[in-house]
């Protein structure tokens, strides 16, 4: 196994393993060597918290669409072979008694779990700085954040440890780090991929979401992990369509450009790269039309009521009795309080407090009910635009390229880095980010959004844009 | 609707979170700062929007709320919950509690 093979596309690695030209064990060894090489000393990327052991390939099918392909898994997926800690001290050392459906599907397709990756604690954050195990570093500039919350998985792909990784999305936690690290990140339609075995943060928003180095790697991962699962009450029974549609003409396709995603305050260099991408989409045959999503500015306030409210309920289970370490104290209530105070970091504590507050008597209607109503207006904006003949939308993924580690200390300012991504989670529609160029050497992502269960159109645009930009996407 | 220190103590108790007195002012300030950004929602006409959206949601079928089969364990129960008594899982005893089963 050579490093160049590991650097190849996931489908190419699988083809080599299926044909016997290399073995899953050899590919895994190369992946683990890459982990070791990037995790030494002060310059460690700190992306993989729990690397797999040599021999881990034995738990996967010998052949399949992802035969021998190393896949990095965010630390909030239940796995049998490695601990599941959610980047939190409160789950330190916990090993799940069952495995997430998405992991099972990957293994059945031959993929090999090469490690569990760093993340903001319980997926609450946009930089991985909220991990109890220290921040991951952006491989393109180690003084900068890789984004979050799925930053470790993004780094694993960007630094060549694995061609595919799984993250999770609640408000942009895959698309934003994909943009910061110069790779592809996909948020499926809510219900497209089973959430069974994904540790819950905000259940009405959470999605299993893959990263790939290329659009095709990401589409391949999506085809493998999608599909109905009776273990997830919100899993859709919709058929799984072909998503590896390849690059083709966009003739007949209408792409909307929502003006609210291009405010006057947008970084001019980011805007210039978006304009170039739109020119390429026009050249590929698409019609580009300005549209309006008038409730966009309300998405962050809505999200930061609904997500903390749901998290305050979901994280109630971590109490020192059923999972992880326990702090002894005088009586059971004091034990709960001491364990949770010790086990949760400041961002998780802040969101549990906020969520409990907006759900409490006297504030429920003013905050939570109101947020649910405005969420419906945000979803209606998308429905109306797609009903008007627009097939997909194009926006920047983030307002800026990757920021410096430690540069943002105000919680609300950090929340604003998700301003262009949270809307898709609130509306339940699919979205993805792919590289569209660089500013001062730092990657910039372009976002494509489509209507519910229309991942094929989203990928059609992505394949065409990736092909049209070529090497320009990375310079 | 300014959040007070007493509010934070109250919701911390509801959420079973221990908050040190020294941290209280920080959380009060942060919650007020965050909730200040939420006030914009109060002026948005939205009555009935959530119900209409639920009715219109496409493809989001939900599983019937019926009792089904338990998810089979993929690791031996003894590996992660070794202690049982009378069909119940035993968890570590609180230091301040007697074990009624001891000596029985």
Name the biggest interface. Answer: A-B, 76 and 56 residues
Task: Summarize the biggest pleated sheet of chain B.
Answer: 2 strands, antiparallel
- Strand residue content of chain A: 5-15%
What is the mean pLDDT of chain B? 84
The run of helices and strands of chain B is HHHHEE
Question: What helical percentage do the residues of chain B reach?
Answer: 25-40%
| Cross-sheet strand order for the largest sheet of chain B | 1-2
Low-confidence residue ranges of chain A:
none
Radius of gyration of chain A in whole Å, from Cα?
Answer: 21 Å
How many β-strand stretches of chain A?
Answer: 11
Specify the number of helices of chain B: 4
Portion of residues within helices of chain A? 25-40%
Mean of all residue-level pLDDT scores of chain A:
96
Secondary structure tally, helices of chain A: 15
Note the quaternary state here: heterodimer
Distance between the termini of chain B: 55 Å
Task: Report what the structure shows.
The complex is a heterodimer of chains A (475) and B (104). Chain A has 475 residues and is α/β, with parallel strands linked by helices. Chain A contains 15 helices and 11 strands. In chain A, helix 8 crosses helix 15 and helix 9 (299-314) packs across helix 12 (364-387). The model of chain B has no long low-confidence stretch (mean pLDDT 84). In chain B, helix 1 (5-14) crosses helix 2 (21-38). A two-stranded antiparallel sheet of chain B has the order 1-2. In chain B, 38% of the residues lie in helices and 4% in strands. In chain B, strand 1 (84-85) and strand 2 (88-89) form a beta hairpin. Chain B is built from 4 helices and 2 strands; from the N terminus they run ααααββ.
């Amino acid at each position: 196994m050579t490093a160049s093979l590991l650097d190849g596309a996931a489908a190419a690695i699988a083809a080599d393993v299926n044909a016997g030209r290399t073995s899953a064990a050899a590919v895994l060894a190369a992946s683990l060597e890459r982990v070791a090489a990037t995790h030494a000393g002060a310059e460690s990327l700190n992306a993989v918290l729990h690397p797999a052991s040599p021999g881990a390939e034995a738990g996967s099918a010998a052949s399949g669409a992802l035969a021998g392909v190393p896949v990095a898994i965010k630390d909030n997926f239940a796995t049998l072979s490695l601990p599941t800690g959610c980047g939190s001290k409160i789950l330190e050392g916990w090993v799940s008694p069952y495995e997430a459906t998405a992991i099972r599907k990957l293994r059945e397709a031959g993929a090999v779990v090469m490690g569990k990756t760093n993340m903001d604690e319980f997926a609450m954050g946009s930089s991985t700085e909220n991990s109890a195990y220290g921040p991951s570093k952006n491989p393109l500039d180690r003084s900068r954040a890789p984004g979050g919350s799925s930053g470790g998985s993004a780094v694993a792909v960007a630094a060549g440890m694995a061609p595919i990784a799984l993250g999770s999305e609640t408000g942009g936690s895959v698309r934003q780090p994909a943009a910061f690290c110069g790779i592809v990140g996909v948020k499926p339609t809510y219900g497209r991929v089973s959430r069974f075995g994904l540790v819950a943060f905000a259940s009405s928003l959470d999605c299993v979401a893959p990263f790939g180095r290329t659009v095709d790697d990401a589409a391949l991962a999506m085809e493998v992990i999608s599909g109905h699962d009776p273990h997830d009450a919100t899993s859709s029974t919709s058929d799984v369509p072909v998503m590896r549609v390849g690059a083709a003409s966009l003739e007949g396709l209408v792409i909307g450009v929502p003006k609210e995603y291009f405010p006057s305050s947008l970084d001019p260099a980011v805007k210039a790269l978006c304009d170039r991408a739109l020119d390429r989409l026009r050249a590929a045959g698409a019609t580009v039309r300005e549209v309006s999503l008038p409730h966009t500015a309300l998405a962050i306030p809505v999200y930061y009521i609904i997500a903390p409210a749901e998290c305050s309920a979901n994280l109630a289970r971590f109490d020192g009795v059923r999972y992880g370490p326990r702090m002894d104290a005088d009586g059971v209530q004091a034990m709960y309080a001491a364990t949770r105070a010790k086990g949760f970091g400041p961002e998780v504590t802040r969101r549990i407090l906020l969520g409990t507050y907006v759900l409490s008597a006297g504030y429920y209607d003013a905050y939570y009910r109101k947020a649910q109503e405005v969420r419906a207006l945000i979803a209606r904006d998308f429905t109306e635009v797609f009903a008007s003949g627009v097939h997909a939308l194009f926006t920047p993924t983030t307002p800026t390229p990757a920021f410096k580690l430690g540069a943002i200390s105000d919680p609300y300012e950090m929340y604003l880095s998700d301003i262009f991504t949270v809307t898709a989670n609130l509306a339940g529609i699919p979205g993805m980010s792919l590289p569209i160029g660089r500013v001062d050497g730092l990657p910039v992502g372009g976002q494509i959004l489509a209507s519910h269960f229309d991942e094929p159109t989203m990928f059609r645009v992505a394949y065409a844009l990736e092909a049209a930009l070529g090497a320009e996407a990375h310079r | 609707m300014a959040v007070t220190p007493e509010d934070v103590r109250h919701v911390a108790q509801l959420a079973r979170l221990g908050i040190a007195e020294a941290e209280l002012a920080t959380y009060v300030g942060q919650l007020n700062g965050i909730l200040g950004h939420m006030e914009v929602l109060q002026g948005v006409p939205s009555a009935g929007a959530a119900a209409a959206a639920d009715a219109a949601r496409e493809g989001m079928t939900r599983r019937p709320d019926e009792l089904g089969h338990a998810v089979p364990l993929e690791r031996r129960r003894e590996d992660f919950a070794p202690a049982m008594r009378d069909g119940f899982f035993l968890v570590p005893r609180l230091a301040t509690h007697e074990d009624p089963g001891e000596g029985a």
